[in-house]
Amino acid sequence: MPIIFPGFDGRRCTKRDTYPDGHDFVGVGVIPDIEIPKNVNDMIAGKDTELEVAIKEMKKKIKQSLINIVFCLKKQALLAYLYNIPA
Q1: CB of 16 within 8 A of CB of 25?
Q2: Phi, psi torsion values for 61, nearest 5 degrees
Q3: Rounded to an integer, what distance in angstroms lies between the CA atom of residue 67 and that of residue 45?
Q4: Domain assignment of residue 87, yes or no
Q5: Which residues does 31 contact at the CB level (< 8 Å), separation at least 6?
Q6: Does residue 14 contact residue 1 with C-beta atoms inside 8 Å?
Q7: How many domains does the chain fold into?
Q8: pTM score > 0.90 for this model?
Q9: Alpha-carbon distance 13 to 3, whole Å?
Q10: Are 75 and 68 in contact (CB under 8 A)?
Q11: pLDDT tens digit sequence for 21-32
């Protein structure tokens, strides 16, 4: 939208941040998948509980992904053996 004053001209930029379903998240933020309660003792001790939980979750997801990969490879090898297909 152009803004015109004597001797000056410019534009005003606007944007709107929304979730995929259309409702605004400005002033609300993105709600985390896992909410970690604040703990004063952890903060005093310099412990990053949110980071520790995030690492633990990522390790679980990686482990599950590896299990799925191994399962798929075993399934592929079994099918190759049953149908006499070279691997």
Answers
A1: no
A2: -65, -40
A3: 36
A4: no
A5: none
A6: yes
A7: 1
A8: no
A9: 11
A10: no
A11: 888 878 777 788
